Please model this.
Amino acid sequence: LLFILGIIGAWLSDKVISFFKIIPCKECKLLTVHYDEAECHCFEPAALKKFPGLCIPRYVTLAFLVSLILLTGLGIAGPQIWNWQRVTLFSLLIITTFIVATVPDHYLKEHIWKHIMKNHLWKVFLWTFFAILFIEVGLHYWNLERFVREHMVWVLLISALISIIPESGPHLIFVMMFAEGLIPFSVILTSSIIQDGHGMLPLLSYTVRDSVLIKIFNLIIGLSIGFILYVAGV
Model:
């Protein structure tokens, strides 16, 4: 649904930009990050031939992934039965392990270890943990369910405003609320349309103007679709 809405929204945005004669990308300039083309090879099975002389990040990451595969396969971690969730998780772990095993040391250290493992993994864990904690505490001690149901329009507006933040973490609160049946589909869709994780950060570093314009378009499209679905009872 987001894929379809993205195409339609992009087409509408282009029409609006042309109508108002807005000129985007004034400040944007492409940068060449890697100057050595050899470093950009993402598939290098020969990397495993270095065993047992593999780098420490590769050993640690492979050990972590293999442990997760075993725990998931045995049903200790994740769903206890082989449903679509367990199959998806198990398949993604296999694919991730293959990627980690076959990328060059540079890609592993810079992009997987330093970027994903060190910068993002712990943030995703903390946001997920505190989102679940917030929902559980709210349901048991703050009567969160009643508050949300009585102020659903405000919850929809709050979900839209929080989604403006260029970070995917806050979005998890509404994902968990939707999973618990506290909010309707219209709210989670509104949040999903407007939020773009840190996809906005590279653009924000080049041009604040275009970043603000994109967020405004997302906000208008997300709130419009969200309110229509909410009024329709979705």
